[in-house]
Amino acid sequence: MNIYQAVNELVARAVAVQLITREDTVYARNRILHLLKIDDFQETEGTDSEGSIPELLDFLVGYACDHKLIEDVFDQRDILSSQIMDCFITLPSVINERFYAKFSRNPQEATDYFYALSQYSNYIQTRQIARNINYKAATEYGELDITINLSKPEKNPKDIAREKLMKSSNYPRCLLCVENEGYAGRAGHPARANHRLIRLRLGGEPWYFQYSPYVYYNEHCIVLAGEHRDMKIDRQTMERLLLFVDFMPHYFVGSNADLPIVGGSILSHDHYQGGRYEFAMAKAADEYRFMLRDFPLLESAIVKWPMSVIRLRGEHMADIVSAADHILAKWRAYSDEAAHIRAYTQDTPHNTITPIARKRGKMWELDLVLRNNRTTEEHPMGIFHPHEDVQHIKKENIGLIEVMGLAVLPARLEWELKEVEHFLLGREHRVADYHLAWAEELAQRYKGTVTPDNAEAIVRREVAAKFLRVLEDAGVFKRNEAGMAAFKQFIATLGTEGC
């Protein structure tokens, strides 16, 4: 395949997936030729290639590297790739007009359109995401989702050196700011020329809707504030989450907590995450039902889940918002030294909530996951954080996605777990020091039963068991008799009656 064939094929693919129409082909082709510094064009016969859009992009970017149009480093390749795809994507105003025309007929039709656009435009990195290792694991709490995240590209030393030479910039202020829409990118800041946002209003202010470039589950979306401001969990948060699922009832939406350790990776920009997926936590059963005396129309319960979750259900949004605000205020101030829960250290707050909303028919449902970020000498990374004996599998913050039952595990585990399999099979191995005690424990437990056919399944099951422990470590009230009694003691402070 030559460069002219690759350009023609990419344009043809764009027509096939309805990024452009046939009337747009000459225009789009000429824009790509300009980016590749090609002044002429040769008509070509079709090839037998069945290359996808990402594969054709790679060919064009490779041509640019070979002809010294760009350096062969990640940032420059990423920038050119997004600029090429921007040739096929119309203005944000047009995309929003199309989205809301479809939305007026059916919200699902609108999100189907925008999700497909985000994939075909290569904003969602479909080929990179396909590299992830995904599986499900049965537990007493339902099926947990396990992902070893191989999709995020690794930068080489040349990329890192270029970033150090770049002048610092405050534009866009962060990766979530609306100013990323159409931004070319630079060393250290991803290319966003092919990025588009849907405009919303939540609680009387402008918000924006997009998909994650590296989706972890079906239609993994981000809902972000127009204003660059810190994450904050308050009454308005609860109201916005419920307004969003009223707007898009086929999606759930939730917020990371607003404190370090128990919060997500970006606390500097108020945002939520949602999508069209039902996690194990959403399917979890009520374990202890109670009635909030001030909100008798609501159904309230402790959820059977390794973390500490209160679920509210009702037909009246205002009741759920008020009840959630009441619970949040009580939890912010709550201490129980026997359970290692302390609301404040001097003026530093420790208690907050991870809230998740969904709509079930006429009923709103809001899960409130209780969080605490205290640290001690024994647990310097957090009392309610993965403890040291599970950190060889997961030591990062337990954010919204993990809370709901999806483990996002580091890429290093791809080869590290293979070495554990070799260990169990008695083969030559290079098990990392931090996995060795675990591997020896597994070897004793599965002695004489590990075969080449079941080694991978055994290791995967044991990784899921470690993730379950991660969630139990992050739970503020433990899954034992004393922990449940302590949980019910907090529930009693809300003004309740057991059911």
Automatic annotation (TrEMBL):
Which residues belong to any copy of the Galactose-1-phosphate uridyl transferase N-terminal domain? 20-229
Xref: PANTHER family: DUF4922 DOMAIN-CONTAINING PROTEIN (PTHR39191:SF1), GALACTOSE-1-PHOSPHATE URIDYLYLTRANSFERASE (PTHR39191)
A GO biological process held by the record: galactose metabolic process
Species of origin: Propionispora hippei DSM 15287
Protein family (similarity comment): Belongs to the galactose-1-phosphate uridylyltransferase type 2 family.
**The name this protein goes by in its record:** Galactose-1-phosphate uridylyltransferase
Any one Gene Ontology MF annotation carried by this entry is: UDP-glucose:hexose-1-phosphate uridylyltransferase activity
Q: Record's NCBIfam families?
A: galT_2, PRK05270.1-2, PRK05270.2-2
